[in-house]
Amino acid sequence: MSVRALLDALDDAALASLGVELHDLVRRLYPVPRSLTGDGVRETLRVLQEWLAGVATGPTTAAPLRVHEVPSGSQAFDWTVPKEWNVREAWIKDPAGRKIADFAEHRLHLVGYSVPTRARMPLAELQEHLHSLPDRPDLVPYRTSYYAESWGFCLPHAQRAALPDGEYEVLVDATLTDGALSYGELELPGASAGEEVLLSAHVCHPQLANDNLSGLVVLAALARALAVLTPEQRRYTYRFVFVPGTIGAIVWLARNPDCARRVVHGLVAANLGDPGPGASAGAGGFHYKRSRRGNAAIDRAVQVAMCDLGEPLEVEDFVPFGYDERQYCSPGFDLPVGSLTRTPWGRYPEYHTSADDLDLVRPDALAGSVRAYLGVLAALEGDRRYRNLQPYGEPQLGRRGLYRTLGGDDRGRERELALLWVLNQSDGERGLLDIAEGSGVPMARLEEAARALAEAGLLGS
Q: Each residue of 160-190: pLDDT tens digit?
C-alpha cells in the first residue's frame, strides 16, 4: 500500500461518496462562531477530532488531533497572543425595536473582536460603526478588528441605505479577557523521521464555507486517508496544523523550531470547494502560488501532479501576501511551502461575504481537491534519484523481458519510452520528478519503470 495506491483507489464512486461526506462536515461546522481565539475555535477542533476518530479505518488509526492552548500575552517573535474573545449576544435594534443586524442570525453581522458595548445613539453616530458593500448591496461583508479595540456591525448596503432616522440600540455582549489561543496539530509518522511534509489551514473564519471550511475538511480527509498506511508505507512524516490565520502560524513556528527545520515540503490549503478559476469556461481546475524559493520540489510536484491528473492549473510566483504561506516562507525560515487552492483569495465575487455559503461549496470540488492533494503527495513520495548501472549505450532490455520481442509493433511503446527515459536520465543527480518535467511521462509510469529496472539490476540508488 502507498500514497499512489490511495490515489488510484479514488474512482468516481469513491469521489462521489467522499464529496457528500465532506459537504456534510462543512454544513456542520458552518454556523460555529470562529475567530482568532475563543470557544468557536475549540468547538471546530473538537468536531474535527470527533470526525477523525469516528471514521478512521485500516491497519492503523489516525494519531489524535491534539489541541494546544497558548495563553494570552505569550510572545511569539514580534507578536503577542491576544486576549480571548467570546460572544454571547450582539445586535442592533432600530427605532421601532426591530433587530436589523443580529449575530445569532449570521456571524458576519458582528465585526470580529468587537469590544463589549451597550449604547443608544442616533443614526448618524451609528453609521460610523456600520460596514457594507455598495457594489454588492445584498451581501453582508466580513470585517475584523483584531488588534485595535473598537466595535462594529456589517449588513447589506441596501438595508443600510434604507435605515430611518431615530435612536438605535446597540448590544455587544462579549468578553475580551485573558484566555488562550487554540490550535490543532496531527502528526502521522513516516519512514523518514527527519523529513516532514507540513499541511496547514486556517481555522479562524466564521460562517465562510470556502474560506476556509473547505481547507479544513480537505486536510481532515487527507489525514484520514494517509492514516490507513503504516509508518513504513509513508515515506515522510506528515504534520497537519489547523491554526488561526497569521498569529496562529507565527505561534506554531515560534513553538516548533525543530519541526520547522524538518519541513522538506509544504502546502497551505484554502478555497478548495468552489468550481475553480476556469469554471466560467467550463474548465474548473486549480491555482498554485509557488514557495518563496520558486523552484522547490513542491513547486514542481504540484505542476507535474496536476498535469498527470488532467487538472487545469494556473501558477503564479510567490508574493508576501495571502494566507499563512507568507509566514512559513518568511526569510528566517524560508520553508518550501506553497499554496494550492481552487480560486485564490479575493478573486471570486463571494469572497469574504455572506455569499461564501453552503451553495458555493460543491461536493465534487471538495472531493476533487482531496484527489489533487493526494496526487501531489504521491509525486513527492515517488520522487527518487537512481544511477544507471549500465550507462554505456542502452542495455539490452529484451533479454530481460522489458522490451518487445517483435519489432514494428507499437503496443507497449509508452511503457518502453518510460524505461528509456529513466535509464537515460538516471545519473544520480536527476530524480523522477526532473524526468517527468522534461519528458512529459506521468510520474506513475516513471515509478513503475524505475521499479522494473531496479529489479532487473539496471538501476541503483
A: 999 999 999 999 999 999 999 999 999 999 9
Give how far the C-alpha of residue 21 lies from the chain's centroid of Cα atoms, to the nearest Å: 18
pTM to 2 decimal places: 0.94
Integer Cα distance of 179 and 373 in angstroms: 35
| Euclidean distance between CA atoms 179 and 202, whole angstroms | 20
Which of 198, 200, 228 minimizes the C-alpha distance to 215? 200
Q: What percent of the chain has pLDDT over 90?
A: 89
For cell 488561526, the residue is 244
62 grid coordinates = 489516525
Distances (CA, A) of 128 to 112, 154, 189, 442: 16, 11, 52, 58
Pairing of strands 75-76, 66-71: unpaired
Nearest to 26 by CA among 41, 11, 48, 42: 48
Which residue blocks in 178-324 are alpha helix, DSSP H?
215-227, 247-255, 257-262, 297-309
Alpha-helix residue ranges (DSSP H) falling in 336-384? 363-382
The number of beta carbons lying within 10 Å of the beta carbon of residue 111 is 23
pLDDT tens digits for range 349-398: 999 999 999 999 999 999 999 999 999 999 999 999 999 999 999 998 88
How many helices (H) and strands (E) in the chain? 14, 19
Q: Please name which of 436, 405, 43 lies closest in space to residue 216, comparing C-alpha atoms.
A: 43
User: Is 255 buried (19+), middle (13-18) or exposed (0-12) by CB count in 10 A?
Assistant: middle
- Separation of first and last alpha carbons in the chain: 22
Asked whether 208 and 39 are in contact (CB, 8 A), the reply is no
How far is the CA of 254 from the CAs of 248, 287, 358, 455, in angstroms? 10, 29, 35, 45
What would you report as the CA-atom Rg of the chain, rounded to the nearest whole angstrom? 25
Torsional class of 38: left (φ above 0), alpha (ψ -120 to 50), beta (otherwise):
left
Q: Which helix (H) or strand (E) holds 34?
A: none
Residue 301, judged by CB atoms within 10 A of its CB (0-12, 13-18, 19+), counts as: buried
